[in-house]
Design brief:
This protein is about 40% helix and about 20% strand. It has about 350 residues and is an alpha+beta fold. Strands 1, 2, 3, 4, 5, 6, 7, 8, 9, 10 and 11 form an eleven-stranded mixed β-sheet that branches. α5 packs across α6. Keywords: Membrane, Transmembrane, Transmembrane helix.
């Protein structure tokens, strides 16, 4: 009887031992799996964080095309000629006054009204003020019709600022510098040329436009009445120059704070300038070879953003377009410019 009891006891002990061993093994496997899962999740979050800053030694201290003198020359040589009172940037132009978006219907309505005043040879004191300013500042006009169109644009913006600020309009110098970016293409092209200077190897890479017109954002605040901010965003692509070229999309932005004093003899001052490049789906090695390396490069899983700080500079106080000949300057100074009262335009 005793052997049978001992045999039964041993059999039950083995079953319990196997059960306990199986439980301990399963529990250990679960603990290991949970540990591996959390370690993997931690590593994934670390490697694919939304943005991580990476400091990259700059290739050189100053990028040749982005020096103070070169930036001044690029902006100063832009053609300020107004071809029409219709902006070539319609639909992509945004004006903010005291953080409020301006309706361009208002500006267009005022332009139409002042065109009628000019065509009817009616006297308007504010319009006369803008004409007088332009006559003193040859830098803005190279023809009589350009002068009248600029005066119409200037007085229309002047009135618009009055409506949105309760009579705290910016000085006339600021208004006409805004017009350079709102109603000409040359100044926007100048900004595009500035961005082109970030290419490290133009023989192997090229920046091309992928959108017809950039977005232009101009902001003015009465708290800082002698300046405005400019932000222009281009849709561009980096193209490799080879048998089978590759194209990488880029969002390229450039911004400045532009200050102009009341004295029209003082040049415009550009400060706090930055270039922002946002690359999508581009190998880091391609980007690092194509463009000069800035001090800061923000890398995320989806894209690479690089930022260039631009030096402060002032515009060169010269005539608006370098192509104006000395003869034209002499003619302008010695002939009588038609006054507003007899300014009937015949086109």
């Amino acid at each position: 009887m005793l052997p049978i009891v001992l045999q039964l006891y041993n059999s039950m002990s083995q079953k319990y031992c196997l059960t306990i061993w199986a439980f301990i093994t399963s529990f250990t496997i679960v603990i290991i799996a949970i540990t591996v899962f959390y370690l993997t999740l931690l590593m994934y979050k670390k490697l694919s964080s939304v943005v991580r800053s990476k400091t990259i030694p700059p290739t050189i201290q100053v990028i040749p095309g982005l020096s103070q003198s070169n930036l001044s020359q690029i902006i100063s040589s832009a053609d300020t000629t107004v071809q029409s009172t219709i902006s070539p940037h319609n639909g992509n132009l945004y004006l903010y006054i005291n953080n409020t978006a301006v309706s361009f219907k208002t500006i267009k309505y005022l332009i139409k009204c002042y065109k009628t005043i000019v065509d009817n040879q009616e006297h308007n004191p504010l319009l006369t003020t803008h004409v007088s300013y332009l006559e003193e500042s040859i830098a803005h006009c190279n023809s009589y019709f350009c002068e009248i169109d600029r005066a119409i644009l200037g007085v229309s913006l002047d009135n618009t600022f009055g409506l949105y600020t309760g009579g705290q309009e910016p000085n006339i110098h600021i208004i006409h510098h805004m017009i350079n970016y709102m109603y000409t293409t040359s100044y926007i092209n100048a900004l595009s040329n500035i961005i082109n200077n970030i290419l490290n190897d133009p023989s192997r890479y090229r920046l091309i436009n992928t959108a017809a017109r950039p977005d232009i954002i101009i902001s003015y605040n009465t708290l800082k009445p002698d300046q405005f901010s400019l932000n222009v965003i281009f849709e561009r692509s980096l193209k490799t120059i080879e048998k089978k070229p590759r194209i990488y999309p880029i969002i390229a932005g450039i911004r400045f704070i532009i200050s102009l004093p009341q004295d029209i003899s003082e040049p415009a001052q550009y400060s706090r300038g930055k270039i922002f490049l946002n690359f999508s789906n581009i190998p880091y090695r391609v980007m690092s070879r194509a463009v000069y390396r800035p001090a800061i490069c923000n890398i995320s899983k989806e894209d690479i953003e690089i930022i260039y700080d631009l030096p402060d500079f002032t515009t060169q106080h010269t005539s608006s377009i370098e192509q104006i000949s000395e003869d034209m300057l002499i003619t302008h100074n010695t002939t009588n410019t038609p006054s507003l009262e007899n300014s009937t335009r015949q086109r």
